[in-house]
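Researcher: Next entry: histidine kinase (Streptomyces olivoverticillatus).
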Amino acid sequence: MPRRPALGTLARGLRARLVVAFLLVAALSALTTAALTFREARTAILKRTQDTAVQALRAQVNSQVPDLRFPPRTVDLVKFTQELERSGQAAEHWTIHTRYKDGPVVPGGRRGDKGIPEGVQKKVRAGIAAFQRIEVDGEPLLVIGLPVAYSDGAGEMSGLEVYAEVRLREDKANVSALVEAAQSGALPAMALALVPALFAARGVLRPVRELRRATQKITAGELDTRLKVTGRDELADLSRTFNDMAEALEENVAELRRMESNSRRFAADVSHELRTPLAAMTAVVDVLDEDAAMLDPDTAHAVRLISEETGKLARMVEDLMEISRFDAGAAALHLDEVDVAETVRKTLQARGWQDKVAADLPEGVRARLDPRRIDVVVANLVGNALRHGGEPVGVTVRVEGAADGRRLLIEVADRGEGIDPEVLPHVFERFFKADAARVRSEGSGLGLAITMENARLHDGTVRAANGPDGGAVFTLDLPLRRGGEEA
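Model: Predicted structure:
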């Protein structure tokens, strides 16, 4: 069952970011629309109130000015002001102030003078009608100023100024209602925007998920994986590019596998064909080597050189044959319960290394191993240490781990200069030689690769490292099987 992604991963995922981005765009659009609508509605409400008040005031002034005597006395202005306040439909919503030329401002019967803006007064004195919205003690007001002309129709200004303060409580309530409506509608709008956001995110993420699954299949080795291409957008172009890449990768891998198979088959065929003539050559040089003492020095040296090189060639052919069996999956494992210390000791004795190697071989360690292959592993590791490391070479056998997971460790250490850290990751590769000048050495470059393959047959591994006191350390790590346990 696939593991569900963690909540933190989902929160940081592409789906969450797409949904959040969609909601932010929706919120920004809704906010912008609401702000513009609010501004237009507020302007329309205030303008309607303003136009209505100006028209009503102008109409009342025009209807009552003919009855006013000029120049008016203070009592006439008070009466005129009171009549204006009482007249008209807007009488409950405004307070009237009047002034004649440079005289004092005359309030009406309602003492509501909150102060007339200086800018309005200047325009009215210049014969221009003016208005301005102000706020006094938290109450919104519209101040209107009208210059009054004589009633004879000549249009000459009489010097009379009329000011009205119109309360905007109803308009403020209407604007507040608009704000509340916008706020109450914001949450449902965001909730509704979430649905198309999820659908949009799903539409974008579907091809991305398909691309991820296809990439995982390619990684797992299913090189024939292809994506279904639909549409003409960028994601469709990405799918086509992926298909082109997968097709090219499949062709390249197939070609590499064919070339690798041919090279392995060639190495196996050549190694097999060389065995017969090499056997004959080995028999001949063995005979010549036995009679080398009776030959003249130059001939004897040539005979020994041929014998030595023939031995190297034979070992190389055997290594090629062995690695070919591993490649073909034909390497068999013949397990037998053996004494590990005795097996390692026999390997050293068979090659005459017992005087060159310091062995720490505890008695009583038994395991199910393939004796021939363990002999090859130990011989390769010790021989490599003797050739390229420094004496004395140490071989240590020990057992580690709990009863249900015990491991057999065979460690080979030398006292040489160690292995270059850049070389360590490559020492088990085939035909790899750390020293480029050592191309004509005794080894074939396959010894450590064969060692690793033999360890894998035993479900183990081989590690290479540098010791704390210098020198290289190779460790064969195998599961410790006992009794009837099989590989």
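Model: Note for the record: Residues 235-327 form a domain with the Helix Hairpins fold (CATH 1.10.287).
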